[in-house]
Each structure stands twice: as structure tokens, then as C-alpha cells.
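User: Quick sanity check before I run a bigger batch. Here is a single chain. Can you write out its predicted 3D structure?
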Amino acid sequence: MAQVNLVRSRASDSAVFKIARTLASGGYGVNLLIWNRSGRTTEEPNHQYTVYPFDFKAPVDKVEGVPFLPLFWLYEIIFLVKHKARVYHACDFDTLFPALVAARITGAKLFYSILDFYANNIPTDSLGRAGKLVRQTVEALENACIGFTDVVAIADDSRRAEIQGARTKRLIVLYNSPEDLPKEEPIEPKRGPQKLVVFYAGLLIRDVRGIDQMIEAIERVDDVTLVLAGSGPDESYFRELAFETNRLQFLGWIPRYQDVLREEMNSDVLFRFSDPKHPKTKYESPNKLFEAMMCAKPIIVSDGGSMARIVKEEACGLVVPFGDITAIRQAIAKLRDDSELRLRLGNNGRRAYIRKYSGTLMRERLLQAYGNLTSGMETSVLGEDKKSPDKG
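Assistant: Done. Predicted structure follows.
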């Protein structure tokens, strides 16, 4: 049984736990190293892999957390060298360099998953010319490190453009799609203008995710409730706001990912906004989009990126300009009043999920890539860039 060491610098990311489950179910021995910064870890009952948490509190998704990275990197190198494996699997740039060093020491293969291209997460607007210089430096470093990896996985086909300056030996596309839930009794669509439940679970950041915009929009649309869940820098703000308005319900942190999906199943509409001023928005196709597809729920998204393109192509939701409160309000009212539209958009998404984006398809793609990597075969990989083996 080939051994794999998987590394992620956070403890509540469903994507990395899904990778661990997939590899374990495919016959690999999996050690998962996570950095438990906030004390909140996604619960994975009955998992068949070993979790090693690095319990050291530090800011999450904030610039203030950067000074703590060298401490985690040192721990990661020691961990990977100590726990020798056939493959080291790093997730995002903040785990890549230590994995590269450890792979050089031990001779392990290196698999790299880019869930978010690090350079495009740097807020250059607030940092001015210095921010642009930092972003260019980080981009150059990540592209250079990618050249030493054996397999690179990107979360959307459009993200090839993000790493076009890197040399990749093998490139695959792994959409961040959830595994399908067991079928239960079908949920009948609501008829007429009844109470509509709009649901969001994830990172709670006001200015980036546009949650404030949705709250403002539904304040003037009758018979609509917004349900929020998750954690993040603005968690306390939304928790307190829920006491001030009956249009908002706050569930807080939901530790089990399956319970998040159940909440989505019981809602009517999902939404996911991304500010187009951030470079990463252009390439984003977040898991919320594929969760909506899997659950057969319509989704409202902001324009300006891959997410909006997919929604338009698959006719599985509505697209609004980011920050346009009137457009958001109109979209909510339209979905509230037209149950057949909700059903049609949801079914379109479900068909697209089964045909192109399902968790089953992504599982097969990942295991085939691993099979080729661990066996030394040079056959093609599903989703591989066949135009040029050296370009991302």
C-alpha cells in the first residue's frame, strides 16, 4: 500500500478532507497534516486516514497570520521527513516549499493542488505599488516551485492562465465538487409567493463575499429569510446582526460538512458573490456552485469570472453585478415568485453536475493521476493539458 502525506495549512477545509477520503478509499495509506489555527476542525466521522493537527493558534485569512508561517513550515518539514511516504501532497503555496524541501531529502513524489493561486489573493489595492511588487514576487516564486512538482491539480480549467508562467510535468483539472448525497424523499417545490429560504455557509467576510449586500437586498423583499452559517473574521458581526432583524438567522459554525449539505438541501436558493476587483475572482469556481448543482438548487452569483460563466452555460442560476442591490433584490423576488423557474434552474444544475462536475468523476480523475504517479506510467491523465506537456 503506497503511503501519502497530505498537507493543508487550515483545519476546516472540506476540499482537503475529500482528497484524504478519496485516496484512503482508493487503497492508499494517508497521513493528513493540518494546521489547527482557530480550534475548529471539520469533523470526519469514521475516516480511514490519520489526522495530525498542528495545534497552534494564529489568525486565519488575515495578513497578521503571515509571520506565523515559518513556524508551521519548520514543523511541516520535520513531519514529512519523519513520516516517509511515496507521495507528498501539498495544498496551496503556503505548504508547497516545505514539501518540496522534504521531497528532495526523502526522494518522494510531489503532488500539488492549487485551490487558490496565492498571488491573486494579495490585496494590491490597499497596499499600492508595494502590494503589486509582493504579488509579482509571490507569483514568480510559486511558478518556480511548480516546476519541481510531479503533478499539478487546478480547481478550474480557466486557472491554466494563472500558472501560464510555470513548467508543469502533468496538469489535471479537479473541480471542487462535493460527493453526492444518498437519495432521499424528493423535496416538492414550493408553490406561489411563500417564505423563501436563501442559504449561505462558508467564510464570513463582509466586503469580499457580499453578504452585507444580500442582507440589504432582502430587507425590502417580503417572505424571504436569509440563513447564514460558517466562521471567519466577521462572524461576531453577523451573529449580533441576527438579533436585530427577523430576516436573518445565524447558525454559526457547522462542524460536519454533510450537515452543511443537508441545510442546503432544505433551502430554496444559494448565493455566492465575489468582488471583481480581486484578481482571483476571474478564475473562481467555488464549491458553493457545485454544491448547488448537486442539491438541484438555483444559485445567484456575481458576474466577472468563471463562476458566472458556468452558471450561464448551464442555466443553473441567475447572474447579478457585484454590489448591485437592486439587481440582487429583483433576482430574489423573481425566484420567490416563480417556483417553476427554481425547479428548472435546479434541475439544469443537477444534470450538469452528473454530466461534468460530479464528485464521482473527480474521484476517478484523482485516483487515475495517483495511479500513474505511483506506478511510473506515462499514460495520459483525465483533464491533462495535451497541447503542451511543459506549459500550464
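The first strand starts at residue 3 and ends at 8.

User: Great, the batch can go ahead then.
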